[in-house]
Amino acid sequence: MIKFFRKIRYDLMEKNKTGKYLKYAVGEIVLVVIGILIALSLNNWNENRKNTEAEKGVLNNIYKDLAIDSTQFDYYHSQFQKIETLHFQLYKIGIKNEDFDSISEPSLIRRSLYFKQLIGADFKEFAHNLDNPKIREALISYTRNIADMEYVYKIELLPLLSEKLKPYLAEKELYNTKNWFELKNRTFEGYSLEEVNGKNLVDKKGLIALAKTKKFQQILFELNVKWNDFYSRLATVIKENDSLRKLIKKELKYY
Question: Residue 250 belongs to what domain range?
Answer without folding.
Answer: 70-254
